[in-house]
Amino acid sequence: MPLDQITNEQLEKHNPDADDKDIKASEMSFLDHLEQLRWHLIRGVIAIAVFTTLAFMNGQWVFHNIIFAPARPDFWTYRQMCAAAEWLNSPALCIDSMNFIIQSRTLSGQFMMHITASVLLGLICAFPYVFWEIWRFIKPGLYRKEQKAARGASIYVSILFLMGVFFGYYIVAPLSINFLASYQIDPSIQNEFDIISFVSTLVTLVLACALLFQLPIVVFFLARVGLISPKFMRTYRRHAIVIILVISAIITPPDVFSQILIAIPLTILYELSIGIASRVERRYFKEEEVEVAK
Hints:
It is built from 13 helices and 2 strands; from the N terminus they run αααααβαααβααααα.
């Protein structure tokens, strides 16, 4: 039967979970969907452009208080470590000096880094809104049960993303930078890092943590569609830990310290994801029992 002859009643009969929004979405043409996606993307790009412009206009403040803050001993993380060192009577924990300087070795280095850093900050700040726009486009195409199961997805994704950003910025990045800057193979070697090397290391660590913190969300959807189960995750826990270590080694600078800093929270998130998969499985069995009872 041609699609234009299918009535709304037939659609409802074929899909009992469909509502008016689902039926309306099913009647939209491919070009209508593209047009709708285009406007969601345009609004997301506008949000990124707004935050990028704000970061660029306040470049001096951004670089001094955000980008280069982990390179100074008065950074929040280092101050907390010094306070802990005093409380534990362990002076080795206190970081009161940074054994390196940052240089720009190319003529356009500072200008290009100003633009690059502004765009990256714009992406990070606008991410919750951009994801919300994408989710608004995807959500109408889901069945009612799927929409119910994924309720609050944009909120959870944004929270985990920001948690990853803060963890990477305040824990992983400063400790990794201090470790790499303090490492010496000979006292005669002076550490003079290029601005591109410093910023790229900082951004890589922060964004890597932000993305890896999405593991519980990924596990939730994979468990929901039946691709993984808590039993599967428990059985291959050791393999998962090896994969986590490999991923940590790939996305971090070439040192074991940074790798461990990334691997520890990822392992914790993996264990948390097992609990999420178990909850999804129990809910699925409960829904099946309700369907059978009907």
